[in-house]
Amino acid sequence: MIKTLENLPTGSSLALQEVIDNLPWNTQGLINAVTQQYDSGELLMVAWMNKEALLETVASKRACYWSRSRQCLWRKGETSGHTQEVKSIFLDCDGDAVLLKVDQKGAACHTGRKSCFYNQIIDDRVVVVNDKVN
Amino acid sequence: MIKTLENLPTGSSLALQEVIDNLPWNTQGLINAVTQQYDSGELLMVAWMNKEALLETVASKRACYWSRSRQCLWRKGETSGHTQEVKSIFLDCDGDAVLLKVDQKGAACHTGRKSCFYNQIIDDRVVVVNDKVN
Q: Which keywords belong to this entry (chains A, B) (predicted)?
């Protein structure tokens, strides 16, 4: 269904519930979630969402993912306090990825770093390039 | 192996080939790839890489993905000319996602839009918010 938006002009729209019901959820019922700091553009993390997590995120404006390891909803920051206030949400062209632009409190990464992407490939090495913030 | 970098200070490093050989490739031999315009921070697309695609991207500094639909290497822009010049590459904390910061020529999206994330969730609608650039 989301593909019907491909050739429509800016401002065209579809009902959210119908789009969500028809997203190409994978065999585990998940789509990719990519999370970016809304003002700096820094990429914070990549995770997964099921339908329930996406609907909760839309409704609560707090990022909620699906934890594949724990097999439960993962309300980001619920225990750490490192919540993500959702500023805007986008679906990609084929609907198997969602982008959250958020305001990250503290660290997005479990290592205490702001972003999970702290390992840079430089020539033939993988180099730690960011310090912990917490 | 990449997890050994978690608690090491900034500047610590591992050999790239060893890290790549030990990434947690999924059952299809893939990791997530997220691609961002290097200067503006605009999120362009989400795709997949196998080991060969990652090694080629590192060596050529042109983004090369794995096409799950076509089951072959996908040298971005090979037919369209909409190439992605790779400025920097990062692995996330657990090594199942790679971030490319690129300079995108033309459109990253097959619809002709700069970014694939042109469908914004606004209240109870999904709204097209970006025009085609090509």
A: Amino-acid biosynthesis, Cytoplasm, Histidine biosynthesis, Hydrolase, Magnesium, Metal-binding, Zinc
